[in-house]
Automatic annotation (TrEMBL):
Lineage summary: Bacteria, Bacillati, Bacillota, Clostridia, Lachnospirales
EC number: 5.1.1.7
GO BP term, example: lysine biosynthetic process via diaminopimelate
Annotated protein name in UniProt: Diaminopimelate epimerase
PANTHER family named among the record's database cross-references: DIAMINOPIMELATE EPIMERASE, DIAMINOPIMELATE EPIMERASE, CHLOROPLASTIC
Active-site residue list: 71, 221
Gene Ontology cellular-component annotations: cytosol
Organism whose genome encodes this protein: Fusicatenibacter faecihominis
Superkingdom in the source lineage: Bacteria
């Protein structure tokens, strides 16, 4: 199987061009290639497929084989791949995802894509649609008990469900590998949850760490950064344009309140191209 390893601020995936390749068991292949000792090493697998509605389709799988609806860092890399490898020859493209069609603008440097701006669509704030079990229509600064400790969450979906928690200290201090699974699998999150732990630095800048459902802690999460920006604005902590600092780098997020659209801007990088022999059971 031919593949390309790509990353968006450290959120790395294995990309397969399904205009040319066939992947029969994506969940099994995702588990295999994601293994950092016996496979390629990644946060998951992203298949770039033909689309009848857009320029291409992004089909993503987490490292545990579960399918995701959207990935903000992943879709920037899909756009870079599509242009750099000749699937498209234009700088404004549409990508079909399980969270709807997303529209992207590509910035070129030396003939290749260096940065991508993504129209991530409207944030979903209704608790039942995220989904989060709550008696309220929206979950904003709502109490949640985890392992005997009280946290306050703000719920946002950007195609994936997110619970955003604001801290009065740096998230570097968290033992995330210990508490992350308890949030992910909490009974109030029927489809599991991505959890962001955020410290507000000023009116235009926040820092965060993320525990992603199905992947654990990752260097970055694009939909998570968008959810964090929306939650920061809803709670009155920041302006509508926010720089979100993640372990792998920075993303610029703008929530256009008039149009109710969230825009994410960040880099996309090709790491290497390769070929891998799949185990016979999943080939």
């Amino acid at each position: 199987m031919k593949f390309t390893k790509m990353q968006g601020i450290g959120n790395d995936y294995v990309y397969v061009n399904c205009f040319k390749e066939e992947v029969k068991d994506p969940a099994a292949v995702a588990r295999f290639v994601s293994d950092r000792h016996f496979g390629i090493g990644s946060d998951g697998l992203i298949l770039i497929r033909p689309s009848e509605k857009a320029d291409c389709t992004m089909d993503m799988y987490n490292l545990d084989g579960s399918q995701g609806a959207m990935c903000g860092n992943g879709i920037r890399c899909v756009a870079k791949y599509a242009y750099d490898y000749g699937i498209v020859d234009k700088t404004d493209i549409a990508v079909e995802t399980k969270a709807g069609i997303k529209y992207l603008h590509l910035t070129l440097k030396d003939g290749k894509v260096s940065e991508v701006r993504v129209n991530m669509g409207a944030p979903i704030l209704e608790a039942v649609k995220i989904p989060i079990v709550s008696e309220k229509e929206q979950v904003i600064d709502e109490s949640l008990e985890v392992e005997g400790k009280e946290y306050y969450i703000t719920g946002v979906s950007m195609g994936n469900p997110h619970a955003v928690i604001f801290l009065d200290y740096s998230p570097e201090e968290l033992e995330l590998e210990k508490i992350g699974p308890s949030f992910e699998n909490h009974k109030r999150f029927p489809d599991r949850i991505n959890t962001e732990f955020v410290h507000v630095l000023n009116r235009n800048t926040v820092e965060m760490r993320v525990w992603e459902r199905g992947s654990g802690e990752t260097m970055a999460c694009g939909t998570g950064a968008c959810a964090v920006a929306v939650a920061s604005i809803l709670n009155g902590f920041t302006e509508e344009e926010v720089t979100v600092k993640l372990l792998g780098g920075d993303l610029k997020i703008f929530w256009d309140r008039k149009e109710n659209l969230v825009y994410m801007t960040g880099p996309a990088t090709t790491v290497f191209d390769g070929e891998i022999e799949l185990p016979e059971a999943i080939a």
